[in-house]
């Protein structure tokens, strides 16, 4: 199996081979003690010592076209990240001019889940059985997406390492400091 391992929250990466376009490619996570962990179950939702900054599992880096996703629950041991395959074909996102691939880091908040048996009051659809889409982020807002009859909430957040983080505290700040970005996000979906 072609696997890449990301060491815990320490930003070290070791690649054993392969890449997202290899059918059995998977990305596993390790903690600081080099023990394999589940990004879904073992990474805390909140960063240490705060209830306003969240950890985010980045499933697809900005500008990438390959559609990667985390396998949750009992489908795969340790919930690795793999490329999405439907009807035996790799899934990719299209470029939407002037952007290439995903226009932001795309991912999930650990220890969250959208129940496929619960009908959402706002969208009228059930959850998509995924985590609510590992970086420390400040949450700014939320976008409800209905995808194939399932509710899929998209969290808008900014990395605490982003140079513009000190200026952006609310969704309206995105409109001021990243012109056209929210509109491009809605168009992208």
Automatic annotation (TrEMBL):
Pfam families: Pyrophosphatase. One of its GO terms (molecular function) is magnesium ion binding. Keywords: Hydrolase, Magnesium, Metal-binding. The keyword Isomerase does not apply. Its cofactor is Mg(2+). It is an enzyme of class 3 (hydrolase). This is inorganic diphosphatase. It comes from Strix occidentalis caurina (northern spotted owl).
